[in-house]
Each structure stands twice: as structure tokens, then as C-alpha cells.
Amino acid sequence: MWPLLGIGVITVGFAARLNPLMVIAAAALVTGTAAGIDPLHLIAAFGKAFNQSRYVSIVWLVLPVIGLLEREGLQERARMLVARLRAVTAGRLLIVYLALRQVSAALGLLSLFGQAQTVRPLIAPMAEGAAEARYGRLGTPARMLIRAYAASADNVGAFFGEDVFLAVGSVLLIKGFLQQSGLRVAPLALSLWAAPTALLAFAIHGFRLWRLDAKLRRLDDEHAP
Amino acid sequence: MIGLEQVYWLVGAMFAGIAFYSWRDTANPKRAGNAGFWGLLAVSFLFGSIIGDLANGVLVLALVLLGGTGALGHGAPRTTSPRQRELRAGRHGNWIFAPALIIPGVAICGTFTLARLSLHGVPLADPQAVTLVSLALGIAVALLAAMLWLRPAAATALEEGRRLADSIGWATILPQMLAALGAVFALAGVGGAVGRIATTWLPLGHPFTAVATYCIGMALFTAVMGNAFAAFPVMTAAIGVPLIVHRFGGDPAIMGSIGMLSGFCGTLTTPMAANFNIVPAALLELPDRNGVIRVQIPTAVPMLIGNILLMYLLVFRY
Fold first, then answer.
1. What angle, rounded to 10 degrees, do the helices at B190-201 and B174-187 form?
2. A53: which chain B residues are within 8 Å (Cβ-Cβ)?
3. What is the least distance, in Å, from the CA of B208 to any CA of chain A?
4. How high is the mean pLDDT of chain B?
5. ipTM
6. Residue B239 to residue B217: CA distance in whole angstroms
């Protein structure tokens, strides 16, 4: 049971808002030592896994392109574009993005959109622009709230869209693990049964995004004298 | 054949460039820390496959020490002012979106074609990694197009990349760190221990309590590990297969599918899922590191309840 101490380290460390890198390293050290893994072996195992997961960092390649376009006014243009469309509100825009993200993920196009390549340069500024067109200059709380909701639309859309696609990693993992346990399931059945949850996710998060507009209106009223 | 390794070289070259300009940035009092951090990351991408596990481990420890002790500052690359940006946005018009749209466009085309094209019988891109290779290709084409169109000074793209990299800071390696922690947890048998606790202490005599425990367990364990993939084998072996399928006769496909999605509800609530929750907070420059999680919890909780009900209603019926 002692290896579970690492989970305690993580929980306490994150709750105390210590630097996550240090917390993770400490948790790995505690859990590894408690399981009787010698330090050199532990460092090597950690280094190997870090090295093998480099693929998650490929998305940082996008930084120079996004930076260059931002320098030329990408975010400002995104704001202007939306500000001219009177029917667009922050909430409605994010509902459309949620749907787009879910549908594209369900078609297997998971890396088509994302936090670095879509939300920061386009979706968040567009949502801010839509709110600005309505309420004028935004206070910091309103601006940060809009950004956080933009990020959430991307996550919810991706998580509850991807499993509707047949060949995504998680569907293959479910199939593989159940097969090891002597249960045969078809990937098609797995993706079919992911659909009710996908619809539920759109309903719940879509409703909350729709409510965002009311929230912003309230913040605006408080902001105004 | 173009595989992940070649893409890593590109990422490594980018971080090496960022390290170089960080070092030259005398306006940043912590420039040595920045140059060291990005430089080590460049080494990881350029040579990680050949230096061996222990050297990689030492490299990670050095990154943790730099990133975890506040050795990184914010560089001051020369960029445009908000006013200049407004003016340029007006001048470029909607064409400014074109390079940003090239990325997904090329990524889609590449995903569908690259693995099928072959040269002397060798596929052009590694079929296992075709999506990521296509994404990298899309980014490269977009950068090239933007450079040809806007004709900035040669180092401008790297300097702008450095501006964003510095604003994300140590969070750039957080997703990889958590993946590595997951590997250590697996090595130490953490999953098995959690599974034993769940089955020893919880009431599982009724089909509904078994379903609820399985779904809530998936969400909680995912929140702890930051990854539903790590939680799925443990919870499914402990509760899903023996109880829901074998004892109560549930359908394995419905259990597996909705079980995994219950795990995703946990992903929405945890700083451990750094690339979804913490990195975006840094990317969007939110003052509160948990700002994204805060707005996701009110969606995650009803989603989990909905998943429990859906599974209970469906799994014993089909």
C-alpha cells in the first residue's frame, strides 16, 4: 500500500499550489522508493517515459507561426470580424465551436483544432470581440471568464466527440483490454454507445455556454457605475 | 520514411533557436535560466533517442530544477504594440487567417494521403504517426507561406515563438512530466493497490451500486492519474468485468464505452490533466492556474451523473 503515498504527495502538493514540476518529481521519488525501486533505476525509468512521450509536445511547433501572425494582428482581426456580426454573442460563438469540435473529433479529425492552434489565436479573441461589441471595454474578470469558457468548449468537444470515431486510441484501448479479459466487442459497438453521452455533453455544456451571455451581462452591470 | 524522429529534430531545432535568442536577450535578468531550460529541451528532442534512459532522466531532473525553482524569467523579444497590430489587422484584412487555416488543411490532406504514398515500396510517412507528421507538415507549410507573404526579418518567427514559449514557461513540459509519473506509478503497482481498495471497501451487491461505483471510480481515479487510459484497465478489471458483466450480465461494449467517458468527466476536473487544463490556462494568460478547471466542474458533475444513469439504463438491456 505504501506506493500510494505518491498520490498523497500529488494531492497535497497541488492543493498547496507548489510548483507542479517539483510536486511530480517528489511524487515519483516517494512512490518509487516506497515500491523498493533503486534511485538510478527510478531516474532511468522516469527519463525513458519522458522521452517516449515527446510526441505530446509536437504541438509547440505551432508557436512561431502563431506568434508571427499575432504580431501582424491576428487576434485583433478575429475580434473585428466578429464585432461586425451583430447576431454573434460570446456564448453562441462558443456553442458553434463546441459543435464543430465534437463533430470533427467524431470524424477522427482530433488534431484539426486545439488549444494552441485554435483557441488562443482565434476562438478566445473572437469570443472576446463578440462580448466587446455588446458591452464595450471588458473588465478583467469578464475577459478571463470568456477565455476559460473558450478552453472548456475545446476540451468538452474533444473528449465527448472522439469516442464516436472508430479508430481513436481510447476505443482501441477498450477493445484491446476487453479482449484480454476474454470479451469480444466490435469497435463499431463501442463508438455507437458513445453517442448518447456525446449528445448529453452537447446539451449540458451548450446550456452552460448559453448561460455565459447572461453571466457576462451581470458582470457588465456590476462593472458599470 | 518520415516518422516522429524527424519531427522531433524540427522541434529540437526550434527550441535550440529559442535558447540562442534567450541567451542574447540581455534585458532578461534570468536569461541564463531561460537559455538553459530551452537548451536542455532542445537536447531532449534532438538527441533523446540516442543518449539512453539514465541520461534522459538526469536531463529531466535538470529541467525540473530550472523550471521548479523560478530560474525562468520572461524574455523581451521585440514585437508590435497593440496599436500597430490594430493597424496591420486592418491592412491585411481576412487574409491574415489564411496561414492559420493552412495548418488544419494540410494536416487533413496529409493524414489521408501520406501513409498511402510510397517511394520504392517504403511509405512516405510512418503510418503509425501519420497524424502528427501531417500536423508538423501543416505547420511548416503555414510558416513558409506566412514568411513569403509577410517577409519579416529572418529571426522574427523564432523571436515571436520565444515570446509565447516564455509566457507558457515551465508548463511546456508538464504533460510529458505527468506521462512519466504515470509510468513510475505503473512500475510501482499503484493501479492494483487502488483497485484492491475499491473492491474491498465498497458496497457492490446491487447492479446499480456496481455501475455507480465503476463510473465514479473511473472519474476519481482518472482525476488522480490525470489520464483515463491509466484508470480504465484497473477499474474494469476490478469492478467492470467481474461484477457488471459476469455477475449481473451487462453488455461489455456499453460498459467499456460509457466507462471510459465517465473517466473523461474526471479529466475535466484535474490539474493532473495538464495539457487540457493547466497548459491552456498558461496559453490564455489566465491569472488563476485552475481557471479552466473551475468552469469545467459544473459540466463534469452532471455529465458523470448522466453517464451513471445512461449505463444503468442501457447496459443490462442490450
1. 70
2. 175-176, 179-180
3. 18
4. 90
5. 0.86
6. 9
Residue to mutate among B38, B151, B177, with most A CBs inside 10 A, is: B177
Q: Say whether pLDDT at A225 is over 60.
A: no
Between A47, A48, A120, which is nearest B284 by CB?
A120
Of residues A65, A148, A181, nearest to B294 (C-beta): A148
The label of the residue with cell 516518422 reads B3
Contacts of B93 in chain A (CB under 8 A): 77
pLDDT confidence of B101, banded at 50, 70, 90?
Answer: confident
Domain ranges of chain B: 4-174, 189-315
Place of cell 495538464: B274
Query: Residue A223's pLDDT is what?
Result: 65
Q: How far apart are CA B226 and CA B269, in angstroms?
A: 9
What separation in angstroms does the CA of A13 have from each of A18, B240, B271? 6, 31, 11
Which chain B residue has the Cα nearest residue A22?
A: B68
Domain spans in chain A, listed from the N-terminal domain onward: 2-52, 60-223
Per-residue pLDDT, averaged over A113-141, amounts to 90
Alpha carbons within 13 A on the beta-carbon side of B276: 26
Residues of A in contact with B89 (CB under 8 A): 72-74, 76-77, 80
Give the separation between CA A79 and CA A73, rounded to whole angstroms: 10
Choice among A96-100, A174-178, B11-15, B45-49 with the minimum mean pLDDT: A174-178
Contact (CB, 8 A) for B257 and B157: no
pLDDT single digits (tens) A4-36: 888 888 888 888 888 889 999 999 999 999 988
